[in-house]
Design goal:
The complex is a heterodimer. By secondary structure, chain A is α+β, with helices and mostly antiparallel strands. Chain A is 31% helix and 13% strand. Chain A folds into two domains: 100 residues, Beta-grasp domain (Ubiquitin-like (UB roll), Roll); 131 residues, Orthogonal Bundle (Fumarate Reductase Iron-sulfur Protein, Chain B, domain 2), CATH 1.10.1060. In chain A, strand 6 and strand 7 form a beta hairpin. The longest helix of chain A is centred in the last third of the chain and has 18 residues. In chain B, strands 1, 2, 6, 7, 8, 9 and 16 form a seven-stranded mixed β-sheet that branches. A five-stranded mixed β-sheet of chain B has the order 17-15-10-22-23. In chain B, strands 11-14-13-12 form a four-stranded antiparallel β-sheet, covered by helices on one side. In chain B, helix 2 packs across helix 3 and helix 12 packs antiparallel against helix 13. The longest helix of chain B has 25 residues. By secondary structure, chain B is of the alpha/beta class. At the A-B interface, helix 1, helix 2 and helix 3 of A face helix 3, helix 4, helix 9 and helix 12 of B.
């Protein structure tokens, strides 16, 4: 079916402001939004820029806004939109670099801030693997499906009003390590996010859970961190000495 | 002039592994055309091989048996010393990854879980559900963040600069600024990946153009065994999204339209877990015989595994099937067809990842050591990328620390960058000509038709003839838009030149190799010919096309025998 695609175009500083450009295109049955975008680019307008890589919802490149909903373009079936006008915009909450490409800088800064790497326990023996019950990894598996696509950060109302908030993905990542039986956290790493811009910034409206294309439920991680902090405060009513 | 001691090109597993083992006292930078976690390594599903002997059915496994399986799987074209090195290092590497935080699936008792994979005598494939590539890539990236490795994201390396037999730097297009930037370095490591998107049907990411292999070739470094192209047996019909070999490792069946597990006619013992070249040909043969569905695909049936096993061991596969086709493998067989998956060939390097050009190293899919020979076993590519990525970092550091670098050639790098800037301008000034996306599409069709699973001399020659026409058309390729930033058309245009080189090398190598070995199946020469062809193909760039030469395979331990599964 012939469909109108309104794609947001913006090439600063050449363009004074973003504008929509319309393309008429007839998608093939089974096309995803990413495939449609590529077809429009390859056949009509090679100057459109957007990110993509794996086209199977695992690299996290192609998160964008389609008819007002944040999604991975490669995971969104065109037919499921049931619409003869499709509006494609970049992710909100981040500056547009060009067209559908946004600047992930605040997202990656938050990611790096939480020290996103295993902090091994001292008893680990380098020549041998760890011995871990898979049950202890079940909760970790929920969070390792995160593909760092930025959808949750883009959807988060707190991130919209306060750029200093480190956002759901980074906090969920931190929780993933905090519950890993091989990791020596929680402290002092958790103290870094025991702040208004950290775990206490979350409004618990769960927009992150709603938009996550991998069903990570980042807010579960934020809640888990809060729980640990509360318990820690009860255990250390006069604060930690170091 | 931007200058670093070591420039690592590619942010996938090989590149990041190299960054982690490079001497931290040296100034290291990674250049990647996407953010590292968007690299194609992320898409690997089923696992990574190491003879840990953790599986109750694999207690006798050893790295020597892993090496033997790898060599036999390669149809004896792998260099045996290199395969042994990789398999021996696999074991400590797995423990190291565990300590870095890779969330491997576990067996009762807490050890790393291992599943059976094709062509392997023992269940030795370690995994994290069916997201092994993702967790490995994320973990190595995490370690790079920990070590503060400098990463240039969204920068496409366009040219390698080699002068007097040594590598002195490179030229890159910075997408964010639209500028062409010269980089000077004492050593360069390529971990730039494969060329899957040279084929119409490929499991690879859209970004896999393989330009790194072409760049090295143009810079005078030979490329090896390019005619060996792996076709994965089980790609989702039409979409060509990979369905992991782990699905068969967990017990999945391949079934034709008669309801028959047809692998019994092709590999009666190994059945679905024969090596990929054999299974891919079997599926294609069944489809050609009229035993496929809609003359296009067969079924991968997982229903007998049950919901619990599918959801715990293969959740990613279930998700892919549901989102792409609305079918749940718990109650519906998956429609699958073979698709291009991996390049066994690549930049000619030795066991130290060193190329004949001083200061230039390569690892992972873009390189050919060779450990995979004529056919790679499943679970060996992640291993290859990490093991040899690590070696490349050590080798490049040693080269610099031992005074191997003979001084910068900044003026020449700047001149190369200026040349590319001029070329970009010239192309941008054209207002008509050939659309590069159309040319790319024609190249893909040509390669799929002329250099696919079954090949013959006539088709390969037709492929070479067709390629000459594409070369001609490319001369007036033009850029439609006026953008300079994130100009993906320019990126495709640059990478396309290298893809044509690779296509030519694949076709020519395949035409000259008048035998059948591993993934290279000649219907007009259907037998392996060890007397004449137990050797690597080397292609060197000349302005008249690839100059081919051959090198003996290192066969120091296992005498080639017939491959039966």
């Amino acid at each position: 079916m012939s469909t109108t695609f309104k794609i947001l175009r913006y090439d600063p500083p050449k363009d004074a402001r973003p504008h929509f450009q319309e393309y008429i295109h007839t998608p093939r049955p089974g096309d995803t939004v990413l495939e449609v975008l590529k077809e429009i680019r390859d056949e009509q307008d090679p100057s459109i820029s957007f990110r993509y890589s794996c086209r199977e919802a695992v690299c996290g490149s192609c998160a964008m806004t389609v008819n007002g909903t944040i999604c991975l373009a490669c995971k969104t079936q065109f037919e499921a939109l049931k619409s003869d006008v499709v509006v494609i915009e970049p992710l909100p909450n981040m500056e547009i670099i060009k067209d559908l490409i946004v600047d992930f800088k605040p997202f990656w800064e938050a990611y790096k801030f939480i020290q996103p790497y295993l902090q091994p326990k001292s008893e680990a023996i380098p020549e041998k693997g760890h011995c871990i019950d898979e049950k202890d990894m079940t909760e970790v598996f929920q969070f390792i499906t995160c593909i760092l696509c930025g959808s949750c950060y883009a959807a988060c109302p707190v991130a919209t009003r306060d750029g200093r908030y480190i956002g759901p993905a980074a906090l969920a990542k931190l929780y993933r390590f905090a519950i890993d039986p091989r990791d020596k956290r929680p402290w002092p790493a958790l103290a870094r996010v025991d702040t208004p811009n950290g775990v206490w910034g979350c409004d618990t409206v769960f927009r992150c859970n709603d938009v996550c294309p991998k069903d990570v439920r980042p807010a579960d991680g934020i809640e888990g961190l809060r729980r640990r902090m509360v318990v820690d405060r009860i255990k250390h009513p006069f604060g930690r000495t170091k | 002039m931007v200058s670093h001691d070591i420039l690592i090109v590619g942010g996938g597993l090989a590149g990041l592994a190299a960054a982690l083992t490079s001497d931290p006292k040296l100034d290291i930078a990674v250049l990647s055309k996407v953010h590292p976690v968007r690299s194609h390594s992320v898409a690997a599903q089923g696992g990574i091989n190491a003879a840990l002997a953790n599986n109750p059915n694999g207690k006798d496994d050893t790295w020597e048996k892993h090496a033997f399986d790898t060599i036999k799987g390669s149809d004896y074209l792998a260099d045996q010393d290199a395969a042994e090195l990789m398999c021996q290092l696999a074991i400590p590497t797995m423990y190291e990854l565990d300590h870095m935080g890779v969330p491997f699936s576990r067996f009762p008792g807490g050890v790393i879980a291992q599943r059976p994979f094709g062509g392997a005598g023992y269940p030795r494939t370690c995994y994290a559900q069916d997201r092994t590539g993702q967790v490995l890539l994320h973990t190595l990236y995490e370690q790079c963040v920990k070590k503060g490795v400098k990463v240039y994201e969204e920068i496409l390396v366009t040219n390698l600069v080699v002068r007097d037999g040594r590598c002195v730097g490179l030229v890159a297009y910075d997408m964010g600024s639209g500028e062409i930037i010269p980089f000077s370095a004492k050593a360069v490591i390529f971990g730039t990946g494969g060329y899957g998107r040279i084929y119409k049907l490929s499991t690879n990411a859209y970004i896999n153009f393989g330009s790194g292999i072409g760049m090295a070739y143009r810079a005078g470094i030979p490329i090896k065994d390019l005619e060996f192209v792996q076709f994965h047996p089980t790609a989702l019909y039409n979409k060509n999204i990979l369905i992991t070999e782990g699905a068969r490792g967990e017990g999945g069946y391949l079934v034709n339209n008669k309801g028959k597990r047809f692998m019994e006619d092709y590999a009666a013992t190994a059945m679905e877990l024969a090596p990929r070249d054999i299974v891919a040909r079997a599926i294609t043969t069944e489809i050609l015989k009229g035993n496929g569905f809609e003359n296009a695909y067969v079924h991968l049936d997982l229903r007998h595994l049950g919901r619990e096993k599918i959801e715990s061991r293969l959740p990613g596969i279930q998700e892919i099937c549901i989102q792409s086709y609305g079918i749940d493998p718990v109650d519906t067989p998956i429609p699958i067809q073979p698709a291009q998956h991996y390049s066994m060939g690549g930049i000619d390097v030795d066991k130290d990842c060193a190329s004949p050009v001083k200061g230039f190293y390569a690892a992972g899919e873009c390189a050919c050591v060779s450990v995979h020979g004529a056919n790679r076993l499943g679970g060996n590519s992640l291993l290859d990328a990490i093991v040899f990525g690590k070696i490349a970092g050590v080798s490049a550091s040693k080269f610099i620390n031992q005074g191997g670098f003979a001084g910068p050639k900044d003026a020449e790098i700047t001149a190369e960058a200026a040349k590319l800037t001029d070329q970009f301008e010239t192309i941008r000034k054209r207002d008509k000509g050939h659309n590069v996306y159309q040319l790319l599409n024609e190249l893909k069709i040509l390669m799929s038709e002329k250099a696919g699973i079954f090949r013959d001399g006539k088709q390969l020659q037709e492929g070479l003839d067709g390629l000459a026409g594409l070369h001609e058309a490319y001369k007036d390729a033009y850029i439609y838009g006026s953008c300079t930033r994130f100009c993906q058309e320019f990126i495709t245009l640059v990478e396309f030149t290298y893809m044509m080189d690779l296509a030519e090398t694949i076709l020519l190598g395949a035409l000259k190799r008048t035998e059948t070995r591993g993934s290279h199946f000649r219907t007009d020469f259907p037998k392996r010919d060890d007397a004449n062809w137990l050797k690597h193909t080397l292609a060197a760039y000349t302005d008249k096309g690839p100059a081919l030469s051959y090198r003996t395979v290192n066969v120091d331990k296992y005498k080639p025998q017939e491959r039966k599964y």
